From TrEMBL:
Name listed for the protein in its UniProt record: M23ase beta-sheet core domain-containing protein
Organism field: Caenorhabditis briggsae
Record carries keyword Zinc: yes
Keyword terms: Disulfide bond, Metal-binding, Signal, Zinc
Keyword Repeat tagged: no
Amino acid sequence: MMKSRVFHLLILIAALFVGANTLGCMKKVCGNNAQNEFRRCPDTDGSCGNYHTERSSGEIIDGVDVRCHVGEPIYAPIEGEMYFWRPFGGKREKSCADHGVRIEGTGQWQGYAVHISSVKLSFYGGHVEVGVEIGEALNRYCFNDRGQHDVEPHVEIKLYKEGKLIDPTHHLQNCMCTGQICESNSRNTLLGDPFKTDKRFNGVRGWDIECQMINDDNEDSPRVPMIYSPIAGETVGRIRLFTDGNGAYTGCDNDGIFIVGIDDWLGFEVRLYNVKARSDIGFGRKRIVQGEPIATRLGCDNSPDSVFLEVRFEGRVVNITDIITADNCKMPNFPVF
Ligand SMILES: *[C@@H]1O[C@H](CO)[C@@H](O)[C@H](O)[C@H]1NC(C)=O
């Protein structure tokens, strides 16, 4: 028992320091460009480095140009398997810039691949974790002595999902995805339809997020998974779903929390059912960072292997399926209420 408590505390401390990776959000790619800013648009020659815009060459590129000076360190923006890759397909006259990296995503990035060029790699393969330095930026225009030298130095990033190019913009900048919510479900896999009503939880539309018990090595019985805050918030309250006529029904299975958004998440309110707030958090006004372990799943005899999430924006229940599944991390345009 004692051993198990210590073990859980260690997990909790580790999680507090590491934080849950933010599902759908890439980390810094280059040097000190922490916000993954793109080169200016329009640039000196009228070209842009935004997704699906015209480059100096006149080509429309389904990638983005992240500002980056020659020689600056390049970091893996996702975890995955790394491969050397030639952005100019081995063209001899462009060989000085024909170096890049392909990272095939694993874990939260399974199914995605990212291409970065031009990069002089420090090593040519193997597994990389997010944030690991993999090389340094090369001059993409070393082969061309006309015009393009004046545009802001950059690396080009392309993102593939299931083999198709997708827009990486909001996976790189102002990334408004909720991140992983349950410890045992790294990709927010949903049970049943997204944004469905569920009679077990008020009948308000939301998401039934799979959340299985966790079997740790050296532990006899499975433990309840941790729950990470999907938003940055300030107030955590406890909610009881059912009442018994005399006031509150205090059954084991009757617990949930709500969080009121702050900062980027201002206007949002989140409710999570089948969870119990961490006792050391307490209630009242307290800042919570996104991804912070704020609760555990309930472990009652009849607890389902999922948690139910309900989201409101300015008081209305809203459909934010894409930012939960990380299909799109752009702040949705809610209708004006
Ligand atoms: C919620 O949003 C998703 C993704 O945009 C969409 O597929 C789904 O049909 C929407 N559900 C409802 C009930 O509006």
